[in-house]
Write a sequence for this structure.
């Protein structure tokens, strides 16, 4: 069986610009692996079509800019190769011209196409690189692009990382230049949201520092939940962020929240996270995430079980006291819980035991008392919230989704602070589905392309 695919390009005046054969194949029909187009066939077709389409579009543009703007003299063509336009379906060389003698310059050649090709990479390819690299590693992204698309041999991890950083820097510049949007601002349709409608969770995680191998640095990530709205993520490295006071407001604004939404802020209780929450949303209702309370109590409980092998009576008493502290915390009695935690820490410090992990037990007990003291104002009545169906925890799952699955904490990947901060900007948008919206805002014709594809699909 012979397969022939021809491409016809027709001008606006219905004249045929070109007719080319882009594929000629002999295909058998007696084996399953020969059925349909192979990856190689498909990539060859896409590359051939792309080359002809881009070349035709560039020629049409050049036809309108073929003469010197100064004297009207026709420009002499230098030939292909001046501009290399990278697309998702191949690298296309485009023509340049000799500069007219009436316009002296240090450069002898130039291209009017530079007015059209303000960037030498197609926005669609830039979007694919950014989206995939936000979800998987840079190296895997390059490998995936080469396997499924005729992108050319220049696709590599370093290039993709550089492109992603460029997108993140541009997004940060947009955020800096936008008119500040306070939490009291936003579209108002006269229907203010209930108190618990907007819940924001903020938590911190740690990554290994590429430049200081012995130290880790903190990344802070968050998630905004609003009734009837899509979830939104955000992330940052504090030392690299100058826009903390605008970041959350921009996230809430992107959710089209009406009126002045009252924000409930769940945090892990860490000093840096608590301070950031105060900058982002000074008027928010702070609540300490229950998961982090439970983790500290669980750690103390594990040490107490180890103590039982050496001091069973004291261990039993400690377990009972921990249960009472947990009960007080669960019911929002921060004052009594703190008093009991401080007494527990003092008694543990005075304990005489041969338990090998006694020092760790003493430190854990002291840390619990300090933790409760620092976050007493954010300890809510979790029992009541639970009965009312209100959230008491979710920030740890945000860290796992945003940080662990891409920054690979278990694999001990190392990062620069700037690189981690920039990747967080694109990853959070890729996760909540707003990365495409960002690109269509920068490149409006991408939205038109999306609409055209949808219309063609419906027609089919």
């Amino acid at each position: 069986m012979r397969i022939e695919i021809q491409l016809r390009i027709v001008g606006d005046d219905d004249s045929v610009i070109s007719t080319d054969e882009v594929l000629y194949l002999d295909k058998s029909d007696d084996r399953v692996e020969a059925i349909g187009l192979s990856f190689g066939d498909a990539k060859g077709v896409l590359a051939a079509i792309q080359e002809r389409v881009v070349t035709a579009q560039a020629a049409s543009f050049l036809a309108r800019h073929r003469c010197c703007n100064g004297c009207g003299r026709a420009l002499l063509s230098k030939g292909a190769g001046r501009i290399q336009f990278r697309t998702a379906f191949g690298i296309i060389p485009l023509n340049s011209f000799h500069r007219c003698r009436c316009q002296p310059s240090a450069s002898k050649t130039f291209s009017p196409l530079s007015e059209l090709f303000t960037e030498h990479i197609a926005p669609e390819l830039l979007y694919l690189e950014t989206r995939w690299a936000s979800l998987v590693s840079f190296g895997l992204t390059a490998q995936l692009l080469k396997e499924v698309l005729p992108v050319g041999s220049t696709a590599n991890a370093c290039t993709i990382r550089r492109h992603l950083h460029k997108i993140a820097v541009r997004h940060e510049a947009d955020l800096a230049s936008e008119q500040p949007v306070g939490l009291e601002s936003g579209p108002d349709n006269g229907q203010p949201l209930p108190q618990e409608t907007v819940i924001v969770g903020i938590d911190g995680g740690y990554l290994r520092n590429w430049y200081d191998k012995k130290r880790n640095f903190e990344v802070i990530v968050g998630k905004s939940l609003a009734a009837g709205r899509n979830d939104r993520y955000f992330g940052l490295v504090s030392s690299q962020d100058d826009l903390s006071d605008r970041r959350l407001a921009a996230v809430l604004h992107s959710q089209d929240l009406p009126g002045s939404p009252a924000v409930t802020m769940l945090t892990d209780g860490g000093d840096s996270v608590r301070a950031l929450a105060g900058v982002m949303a000074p008027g928010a209702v702070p609540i300490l995430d229950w998961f982090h309370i439970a983790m500290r109590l669980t750690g103390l409980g594990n040490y107490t079980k180890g103590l039982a092998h050496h001091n069973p009576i004291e261990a039993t008493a400690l377990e009972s006291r921990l249960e009472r502290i947990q009960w007080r915390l669960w019911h929002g009695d921060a004052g009594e819980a703190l008093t009991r935690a401080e007494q527990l820490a003092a008694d543990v410090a005075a304990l005489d035991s041969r338990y090998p992990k006694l020092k760790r037990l003493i430190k854990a007990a002291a840390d619990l008392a300090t933790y409760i003291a620092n976050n007493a104002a954010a300890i809510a009545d979790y029992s009541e919230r639970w009965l009312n169906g209100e959230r008491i925890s979710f920030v740890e799952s945000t860290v796992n989704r945003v940080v662990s699955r891409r920054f690979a904490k278990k694999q001990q990947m190392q990062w620069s602070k700037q690189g981690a901060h920039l990747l967080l900007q694109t990853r959070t948008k890729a996760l909540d589905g707003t990365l495409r919206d960002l690109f269509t805002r920068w490149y409006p014709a991408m939205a038109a392309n999306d609409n055209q594809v949808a219309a063609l699909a419906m027609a089919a």
